[in-house]
Design goal:
The complex is a heterodimer of chains A (403) and B (114). Chain A has 403 residues and is α/β, with parallel strands linked by helices. Chain A folds into 2 domains: 4-111 and 285-402, FAD/NAD(P)-binding domain; 124-281, FAD/NAD(P)-binding domain. Helices cover 33% and strands 25% of the residues of chain A. In chain A, strands 11, 12, 13, 14, 15, 16, 17 and 18 form an 8-stranded mixed sheet that branches. In chain A, strands 5-2-1-9-22 form a 5-stranded parallel sheet, covered by helices on one side. Chain A has a 3-stranded antiparallel sheet with strand order 6-7-8. In chain A, α1 (11-22) packs parallel to α2, α1 (11-22) runs parallel beside α9 (335-354) and α9 packs antiparallel against α10 (360-378). The two termini of chain A are 29 Å apart. In chain A, 49% of the residues are buried. Chain B has 114 residues and is α+β, with helices and mostly antiparallel strands. Chain B has one domain: 2Fe-2S iron-sulphur cluster binding domain, sarcosine oxidase, alpha subunit, N-terminal domain (Ubiquitin-like (UB roll)). Helices cover 12% and strands 29% of the residues of chain B. Chain B is built from 2 helices and 9 strands; from the N terminus they run ββββαβββββα. In chain B, the strands form 3 sheets. Chain B has a 5-stranded mixed sheet, covered by helices on one side. In chain B, strands 1-2 form a two-stranded antiparallel ribbon. Classes of the chains: A alpha/beta (403), B alpha+beta (114). The A-B interface holds A 32-35, 39, 44, 52, 54, 56, 76, 78, 110-111, 113, 120-126, 128-130, 132-135, 137-141, 163-165, 250-251, 288 and B 3-7, 9-12, 15, 35-37, 40, 43-44, 48-50, 53, 58-69, 85-88. Bound molecules: flavin-adenine dinucleotide and FE2/S2 (inorganic) cluster. Residues 62-65, 67-72, 83, 85 of chain B line the site of FE2/S2 (inorganic) cluster (FES). Flavin-adenine dinucleotide binds next to α1, β2, β10, α3 and α4 of chain A.
Chain lengths: 403, 114
């Protein structure tokens, strides 16, 4: 029997496995994708110091380290149910059923769908789908595309598509509807874009970043926003244009876009059609936490963390005995934070499994917790502005209600 | 080699040589490479429609590409409901697209039979 089962071979799950194995625990990592690495595999961005964050390399480092320590990694296995049995957990997969005293959920994040009329046509995909096709499978999503949804993730991935030689005609807003909400509001989108201005080699955005506190400047910038968009890495970003409809009979043939006011209202008669054969929809990310829900774990809604998050403490324990969480299931952050959180979770599991009086593991745990805080503070990519506030709220809820 | 594949990448480098695999999709022969998914092998061959909506028969392809949305379901060697974005292509695989299903309990259909 394994001492612990880990669901998800992303940065969080793999580093948790490494931490467990370093303390001689026998662990297995289960993942439904055919290769380990999770969403790391698609990642490719330039750090502020100019070096490249190559997710494939980072994933390989973790996988090799885990395997060298004797960790079992099962790929192509989906977990569809978990339940508490006796002193532990039963994990139901499409292959077999396994029981374990300690279970870690490191299932990561999913993309929020942002519906646009015509979005079921082949050739329309999420921005993450285009990332995986391009960087992992090395297959082009199409010949010429458009990105609907302007946010940190879509800006980073659009750049990746361009780097691979893809032709992206531009980025536009989604239509305003009850699901897209602020994502269709030029003012709100501009504010969130200014937070990544340090990453963008665009004079406009750098200038904008400095002036981000001056509301009147933002208003002015949007009122006089150039018709041809503002270029970031040579890709036109249209903060005053929104997608209306994706057209095509059997697959994508074109997209109809329109101009919008600085508040996102459609300007009648401004519609134009652009010929494209693929469309990437970027609605943002939310924690993928269904398994925690079927386990009966309590949840809390934190916009700062990206949605509904299973309750947990800083040591990655949930209120349910033997159930742990780590990585983006606990809130949307970059892979480096997920990796550091995974290490904490692994040490927590090891500490409670060996139950030794040896204080060495406590020291490691303290260091690992410090590491998470440090990495979070220095993160180059931040998906949500008030991430620290969200983390603190979660910690106090756990303390007040569950400890 | 068609230009749908990204063989050279300025940061990720040149794609390593991989073994070719042969498979069929709706009876037609295609070539893919070991270590890639069914969805990737088909897209690289120019195939984007993987199934049709069970009732309306409108075409569908991949959406999320990482197993979350189930839009890419195909039948593999007789097993239906397989997510083509997660499943590795193998030599000799027989893949069928998802087809329209009968809707015998729909009012229109019932009317046709009475
Ligand atoms: C499409 C997408 C693109 C992203 N791109 C970036 C980016 O460019 N830069 C960035 O910093 N962050 C990006 N992120 C955020 C990303 O979530 C984190 O960077 C990081 O990868 C999170 O690590 P993790 O270990 O928590 O989860 P993940 O890396 O997502 O790993 C989770 C793993 O769990 C597996 N899994 C989930 N459910 C099950 C199940 N039921 N059964 C079996 N296996 C399961 C998945 O297959 C996956 O491999 C992206 C996220 C998504 C969804
Ligand atoms: S494309 Fe979403 S599950 Fe395959």
């Amino acid at each position: 029997m394994y001492d612990a089962v880990i669901i998800g071979a992303g940065p969080a799950g793999l580093s948790a496995a490494i931490a467990c194995a370093k303390w001689n625990l026998q662990v297995v990592v289960i993942d439904e994708f055919m290769k380990p690495g999770g969403r790391l595999l698609g990642q490719l961005h330039q750090e502020p110091d100019g070096t490249w964050w190559n997710g494939i390399k980072e994933a390989n480092i973790l996988v090799e380290q885990a395997r060298a320590l004797g960790v079992d990694i099962w790929c192509g296995v989906s977990v569809h149910h978990i339940e508490e049995v006796g002193q532990g957990w039963r994990v139901h997969t499409n292959k077999e059923r396994i029981d374990t005293p300690k279970l870690l959920l490191a299932t990561g994040a999913a993309e929020t769908p942002a519906p646009v009329p015509g979005w079921t046509l082949p050739g329309v995909m999420s921005i993450g789908a285009a990332q995986v096709m391009t960087n992992v499978h090395r297959v082009r999503p199409g010949k010429k595309g458009i990105v609907i949804g302007i946010n940190v993730l879509s800006a980073a991935i659009t750049r990746e598509l361009q780097l691979a030689g893809g032709d992206v005609v531009g980025m536009v807003l989604p239509p305003v509807n009850p699901i897209t909400k602020d994502a269709g509001n030029p003012r709100k989108v501009m504010q969130s874009l200014l937070r990544i201005s340090h990453l963008a080699p665009s004079a406009f955005l750098r200038m904008g970043g400095k002036l981000s506190r001056a509301n009147w400047m933002q208003k002015l910038a949007l009122t006089f926003y150039p018709k041809s968009g503002v270029k970031m890495w040579g890709i036109p970003i249209h903060l005053r244009k929104a997608a209306v409809q994706i057209n095509g009979e059997k697959e994508v043939e074109s997209v109809t876009i329109c101009s919008v006011t600085p508040d996102g209202k459609r300007i009648e008669g401004s519609e134009q059609t652009m010929d494209v054969d693929f469309v990437c929809i970027a609605g943002g990310l939310y924690p993928l936490a269904e398994l925690a829900a079927v386990a009966g774990c309590p949840f809390h809604y934190f916009p700062e963390l990206g949605g509904h998050v299973p309750v947990h403490n800083e040591r990655m324990k949930t209120p349910l005995e033997g159930l742990y969480v780590a990585g983006n299931i606990t809130g949307i952050e970059s892979a480096k934070v997920a990796r550091a959180q995974g290490f904490v979770a692994g040490l927590s599991i090891a500490k409670e499994t060996i139950q030794s009086a040896d204080s060495a593991i406590d020291k490691h745990l303290e260091n690992a917790l410090d590491e998470v805080r440090k990495i979070r503070s220095n993160a180059a990519i931040q998906f949500h502005q008030d991430i620290h506030a969200g983390r603190n709220k979660m910690e106090s809820i756990y303390k007040e209600q569950f400890s | 080699m068609n230009n749908r594949r990204i063989l050279h990448h300025p940061v990720l480098g040149t794609m390593p040589e991989r073994n070719a695999v042969h498979f069929t999709f709706d009876g037609k022969k295609y070539k893919g490479f070991e270590g890639e998914t069914i969805a990737a092998a088909l897209l690289a061959s120019g195939v984007r429609t993987l199934r049709v909506h069970e009732e309306k028969e409108t075409p569908r392809g991949i959406y999320c590409n990482i197993g979350h949305c189930f839009e890419c379901r195909v039948t593999v060697n007789g097993q239906p409901g397989v997510r083509s974005c997660l499943t590795e292509i193998n030599d000799g695989m027989v893949i069928e697209s998802g087809k329209r299903q009968p809707t015998p309990l729909k009012r229109k259909e019932i009317a046709r039979h009475v």
